[in-house]
Design a protein that fits this description.
The protein is of the alpha/beta class. It has twelve helices and 17 strands. Strand 13, helix 8 and strand 14 form a beta-alpha-beta unit. The longest helix is centred in the last third of the chain and has 26 residues. The relative contact order is 0.14.
Length: about 375
């Protein structure tokens, strides 16, 4: 009878397509069950795209049919494999957070917070442990977009310090200055105070174990962006833009700013890309192809082109992101694909970093 030891032996001969190491060494195997001549394998994959999954299925099925023909059918369950950013400074400040990603834009009004919220929810729906920090101290929108305008974090004792426990909604851990202010009050602070608040969201909040912590950034290239980049080395950034040239000009500045502080841009998202008419035709209200143009210019992946759609807007207003309110919609599927493609880009970056030889100093 086939044993788990036999299964591990077979899987150790099969490569994870992206990581080019065997499935066991990659940490892909999570469990199995066998009923009669039917086996169910649970695996993690660094990329959940159809091509990668198809290769894994084909190779596993072939190996088992050769070595263990008594297994007549193999069912597969795939989950995301998230590689960790091994930067030592990040590990000191957020030791249980694998990756930190800034969702940024060069200017306001491009729907960056809407994108950040739907990405966070889509990641959580995919089984990825996700947190979201509202880094827009002067214009926090996360409380409304998660229907938590009256939400308040509570304090807990950790060692000899009082720390905040983030709110959790739709599977996403949340922190925003909006949770700490009276509803409707404006944040009237100078830059250093806003920067200090952001630092507290990183160092004085009990985030627990997270695969990804997203930062919904304010527009521009000012204090908050520099504070975040200097306080904790980011795994990477995602630039949100709209198609028109005026938006792209500011998005390029955002890209340049992150480049100057050694933060890799993992992808570009074009929001309000087009409006789909009732007859199925597309109307490019804000121009066409700007995100693609920028992605080609900087050789950065275009993660997606999101349409101008009232469902996306109303989902944010109601505090129920479209990824949840319309789970079968084109928009929800698009955000799901973007979120999984972002994980691929994170894994590529972290795998590439892990291949670099350690620094040796000979005295």
């Amino acid at each position: 009878m086939i044993t788990e030891k036999d299964i591990i032996k077979v899987l150790s001969t099969i490569k994870e397509p992206m990581l080019q190491t065997d499935l066991i060494s990659a940490g892909s195997y999570t469990g199995t069950s066998i009923i009669g001549d039917e086996m169910t394998l649970s695996l993690k994959a660094a990329s959940l795209n159809e091509e990668s999954i198809s290769v894994i299925k084909k190779n596993i099925t072939s190996a088992f049919s050769t070595d263990y023909p008594e297994i007549k059918k193999i069912n597969f369950k795939f989950f995301p494999l998230i590689l960790e950013d091994k930067n030592s400074k990040k590990s000191l400040i957020l030791p249980n957070v694998k990756n930190t990603i800034a969702i940024a834009s060069g200017k306001g009004g491009v729907g960056k917070s809407t994108v950040a919220v739907n990405l966070a929810v889509s990641l959580a729906k995919a089984g990825i442990k996700t947190g979201l920090i509202d880094a827009d101290i002067y214009g926090p929108s996360i409380p409304i977009m998660f229907n938590e305008a009256k939400g308040k974090p509570f304090l807990t004792k950790e060692g000899d310090k009082n720390k905040m426990v983030p709110l959790e909604k739709y599977g996403v851990k949340l922190m925003s200055i909006g949770f700490l202010m009276e509803e409707g009050n404006a944040v009237v602070w100078r830059g250093p105070m806003a920067s200090s608040a952001l630092k507290q969201f990183m160092t004085e909040v009990v985030w627990g174990n997270l695969d990804v912590l997203l930062f919904d950034m304010p527009p521009g290239t000012g204090d908050i962006q520099l504070t975040l980049s200097q306080t904790i080395p980011l795994t990477g950034s995602v630039i949100v833009t709209t198609p028109q040239e005026i938006s792209l000009a500011d998005a390029r500045k955002g890209y340049s700013m992150f480049e100057k502080v050694n933060v890799k841009t993992l992808g570009i998202i074009e929001n309000m890309s087009y409006y789909k008419n009732s007859d199925g035709t597309e109307e490019h209200i804000f121009g066409k192809g700007g995100g693609k143009k920028m992605s080609e210019e900087y050789k950065v992946k275009l993660l997606g082109e999101i349409p101008l759609n009232s469902n996306i807007r109303s989902g944010g207003d109601m505090g129920m992101p479209v990824s949840l309110s319309e789970p079968e919609s084109f928009e929800a599927e698009l955000f799901r694909k973007i979120s999984l493609d972002l994980i691929v880009e994170i894994n590529k970056k972290n795998f590439k970093e892990s291949e670099k030889p350690a620094l040796e100093i000979n005295i």
